[in-house]
Amino acid sequence: MQANGNANQRIARISAHLNPNYPKMEGSSGLQQVSCRAKGGAPGFKVAILGAAGGIGQPLAMLMKMNPLVSVLHLYDVVNSPGVTADISHMDTGAVVRCFLGQSQLEDALIGMDLVIIPAGVPRKPGMTRDDLFNINAGIVKTLCEGITKCCPNAIVNLISNPVNSTVPIAAEVFKKAGTYDPKRLLGVTMLVVVRANTFVAEVMGLDPREVEVPVVGGHAGVTILPLLSQVKPPCSFTPEETDYLTSRIQNGGTEVVEAKAGAGSATLSMAYAAVKFADACLRGLRGDASVIQCAFVASQVTELPFFASKVRLGRTGIDEIYPLGPLNEYERVGLEKAKKELAESIQKGVSFIKK
Ligand SMILES: NC(=O)C1=CN([C@@H]2O[C@H](COP(=O)(O)OP(=O)(O)OC[C@H]3O[C@@H](n4cnc5c(N)ncnc54)[C@H](O)[C@@H]3O)[C@@H](O)[C@H]2O)C=CC1
Ligand SMILES: O=C([O-])CC(=O)C(=O)O
After folding, report:
1. Is the pLDDT of residue 252 over 70?
2. Where does the Lactate/malate dehydrogenase C-terminal domain start and stop, copy by copy (predicted)?
3. Which ligand is nearest to the CA of 297?
């Protein structure tokens, strides 16, 4: 009897981890869920993904479940998160996975998180700009960030939802309103353009993309995406034609995928890869690793604009240092002026959405 009692308690505990609605889910087999939870849980960080059932969210959840720095992984969405959680929780890696479904479970999803990754929102279709997503995604980001202010105001936030040039200022205003804003902890994820830039430069130069580092500064849409080809590592020199080709391909990489997917969304797999690369950098910073440097769209004094993407060093409390742009060539100086003009409007649009 005692043994059965303990076993039942274990099953209940396991099922509750998988879905906080347990035992409301009694119709489903508790035993089926026994295999869904790793024993104990590895030491590490607690990470929530908001929008976890989406095109980015699913592969992102899978890759975060594989990250040894993650001990607890909360998967939140307004639809389909139970299926994604059940699926991913069968992976025999250390992180414990928990499901959260619908607005009423948002706060539970966020309590105690160290890192919150937000890929919630609608993606582009051919013919749309990222800014065309503003009307829907601004409200989604606002609601999710209000949850963060209440439940994990000290978490690092990685914001993926587009238009990043406006959603990051929206998040900042929500946090300011709640009195929880710490600019060191809010990062717009621009890693995908860096990943693309490394790949495209490697292709042109006949290099291994893993050995190429291209700083990409500015923002995350069209001309606001400014690759600094004069600062590529290893040092490369490009003809004017190569510079034009690479700049344009990097700036339009998102559109290239949107068009190839022909109405079925935008980049999801490469984005999940980039998001995990970036989240891992944030977690290594939190752990105290030295010299963790990535590009991100952050509150910044690098230019006269209040937000700008450039290289940042990540540490125990988020951003430890924001690096200046370094020497630019004439092509990049012209690009910078164009980028700043569009960025200023997108930032203001985000700020006004909350301040209106
Ligand atoms: N920063 C970047 O480099 C990139 C950003 N994106 C952006 O990421 C966003 C998501 O893209 P996909 O995953 O392809 O879209 P998707 O439509 O496949 O997935 C979005 C998910 O968000 C969920 N969602 C909607 N409203 C929500 C809410 N209020 N709370 C929680 N979840 C909610 C949906 O249910 C869905 O599961 C888009 O805005 C897209 O433009 C996409 C690629 C790159
Ligand atoms: O292009 C889009 O809409 C999605 C995105 O931000 C990217 O792929 O860089």
Report:
1. yes
2. 190-353
3. 1
